[in-house]
Amino acid sequence: MLHTFNCSSPPPFYFLLVLEESNCSDPGGPVNGYKKVTGGPGLINGRYAKIGTIVSFFCNNSYVLSGNEKRTCQQNGEWSGKQPICLKACREPKISDLVRRRVLPMQFQSRETPLHQLYSASLSKQKLQGAPTKKPALPFGDLPPGFQHLHTQLQYECISPFYRRLGSSRRTCLRTGKWSGRAPSCVPICGKTENVTGPKSQGLRWPWQAAIYRRASGVHGGSPHKDTWFLVCSGALVNERTVVVAAHCVTDLGRVTVIKTADLRVVLGKFYRDDDRDEKTIQSLRISAVILHPNYDPILLDTDIAILKLLDKARISTRVQPICLAAPRDLSASFQESRITVAGWNVLADARSPGFKNDTLRSGAVRVVDSLLCEEQHEEHGIPVSVTDNMFCANRDPAAPSDICPAETGGIAAVSFPGRASPEPRWHLVGLVSWSYDKTCSHSLSTAFSKVLPFKDWIERNMK
Predict the structure, then answer these.
(1) Per-residue pLDDT tens over the stretch 347-391
(2) Structural domains counted in the chain
């Protein structure tokens, strides 16, 4: 029988086609971490995610995510990517360009305690042999750049032989997410010199010797002529940005007015007195600040010390290295008997003299003279002077070779003795040539030096 039916009457049976959207099941959060919906429609009843939902994964403190940071619910009801895990890891510590870092092969450190011996002794050899040995599992899972696995060891060294390392040579990633030991840094080795003799000269190179130049007055500012610079003093490089110098070298004579930084410059690696003979290894550096000691007396030249801060870092090399700073306790007992080396250029040299072209950095040994005797020497010559506690007097050591007249140099004074950082002898800055009335270099009158030892803390505060 053929049934006919119209649109107004429903058929006796019909098929209802329902298209259901495929949802994604809850992926869950990683162990030692958690998940968070960060995009898309979101979750349904907290159990399913609609297509397009984006879930991000995070780890608790001291854990780092390994794998996909985000997963998306796809049309097929599956999540994109793979479920990430949280691993114990440490962020790599920052280091300077002077430090070389090496990741050591993964190995497990063992610790011996009294209990190890006790347990080993209490077990029979047979039991020990029969007991299975279980090695700790190596870390698994890739970490994002800049992280290292738990128990990873990093080894550090300085990239340059002119630097020494401070801090730990090896650091281990701990369960806390931190690194063991102290952050490494590399600082220039101070006070070390090979005393390289200059070419065709008997002079010695002192790599911390800094030549202090001043721009000639009246030339700076609108003059059509080339700038004229005069060598006025020597200073001592104590780190890559700091030079110690006598205060009278960087102030107007008899005043505490500091010379403008634009009218001063520091030259490192210099050997010849004649600027035209300077070698390519020299470094001409600008000055960012002149720090005068607050107790400087420009009349008596008491506390005759200042600091020059360099605008650009000095490049440490065989020709340019810092000198060490001595502590008062290093020389308190033996300072009076010390043989002190004074080095500097003849700032009074006549450029027209025949020997000027070959004149070099000069050095010689001096011995400390008792302050009272120093005052009496000058008084005998009709020159009343006061030698303060911030000064010491010294005169040429007749038993040692010398080509220097300290009264002409404005040089620096140094002593060599083993340092605290190394048993090898190191040169330490002890004084700066301050004043002298020995105009003929007869050595009948001692030269007065500004002490550096009492101002070590002040210098170090301004070295940072």
Answers:
(1) 887 777 887 888 889 898 999 999 999 999 999 999 999 999 999
(2) 3
Residue 238 falls inside a structural domain: yes
pTM for the whole structure: 0.79
- Asked if 303 contacts 238 with a C-beta cutoff of 8 angstroms, the reply is no
CA–CA separation, 416 and 402 (whole Å)? 17
* Residue 227: CB atoms within 10 Å: 10
First and final C-alpha spacing in the chain: 107
Q: Which domain holds residue 411?
A: 209-461
What tens digit of pLDDT does each residue of 118-132 get?
777 666 555 545 444
Residue 270: inside a domain: yes
Same domain for 360 and 396, yes or no, is yes
301 in the same domain as 158:
no
Query: 451 - beta bridge partners?
Result: 431
Q: What angle do CA 63, 65, 70 make, to 5 degrees?
A: 145
In this structure, are 36 and 149 located in the same domain?
no
What DSSP string runs through 193-223?
---PBPTT---B--TTEEEEEEEPTTTTTT-
Distance CA 177, CA 92 (A): 10
